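Assess this:
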Amino acid sequence: MADVTQRFNPRLDQIAVSMIRQFDERVSNIPNILKLTLGEPDFNTPEHVKQAGISAIEQNYSHYTGMAGIEELRKVAARFVHDKYKLSYDFQSEVLVSIGVTEGISASLISVLEAGDKVILPSPIFPGYEPIITLTGAEPIYIDTSTNDFVLSPEALEKTLQKHGEDVKAIVLNYPSNPTGVTYSRGEVKAIADVVKKYPVFVISDEVYSELTYEGEHVSIAEYAREQTILLNGLSKSHAMTGWRLGLIFAPEALTKQIIKTHQYLVTSAVTSAQMAAVEALSAGIDDALPMREEYRKRRDFVYEQLQCLGYEVVKPTGAFYIFAKIPEGYKQDSMAFCVDLAEKESLAIIPGAAFGLGGQGYVRISYAASMEDLKDAMQRIEHYMENNKMA
């Protein structure tokens, strides 16, 4: 029998299943495990949005839509980002509906990159970008932000762009950030945009946590560098719709004309009933995220204060629903070893910071997308672990 197992794309050998998923599966069978691991809102999709999805199925919205998505959804999506973030996009030619932001990331990167290109990634960063970059034959270039409170400085960006020159094809931004919860002020966004506009690079900006911004307003880099920006957003975090797999791509027409080709061959189109539900979410449910955001804020404050009392260094999150905490001296500094030990001894699962690349080692990520009861329990388990596992 012919052996085809050695004939896969050899670049697959350079990537692996996300360490987040690997770790989550590793600890899931521990008895009484309490998991603060995945970026999964613990809220349910708002009832009126669910009913819109049910109604769509009952009305036989079960056929293909156009490649770009339902016109009404693209229209309300353009209105949403205009009303929320002062952005103007033509719904007919500058908005695409994707299967979650994940597919939007893939479609955008595959459309932009070719072998030999370089892509700047401020790190620590969500590990969903590098594998796609690697599969295209491009190379990720990391900028360690851990020494700057996890904020990419314009100086560091400029230095990296100058060093790598025309090889740099794109920069990926993700804010509010997974894993750090840090976001950018208007001045910081403008400063980055001022640098970017001097170079012929794409900005792929993943702003899926935009509605979960705690201090001030969310400012999209598309407001300042529109012609270079591929803006990604979606409903997974704002409307607790992770399983609906509904994302949005906003970009100038010249860019969407290219991205839609990749999008079409990857997925054809997004799920029709989910698109109908999304119309409801972005219109009648335009502010559905606000009560969830206030609950996340209370949880953030609680976990932040508890961790500080236990000796963790933490940059206070200003968005998303994660805390990225530095492991105190006197404990295992290898983040994977620390998290495995914590899971085995206290039945508490949090994510090793090493999963998020350069600058992540020595940190842990805690998701506070969990009930206050679970968070109180988790903090007690961490406290017990800290009391009994300090190294000599």
Observations:
- The longest strand covers residues 168-174.
- The radius of gyration is 21 Å.
- The chain has a mean pLDDT of 97.
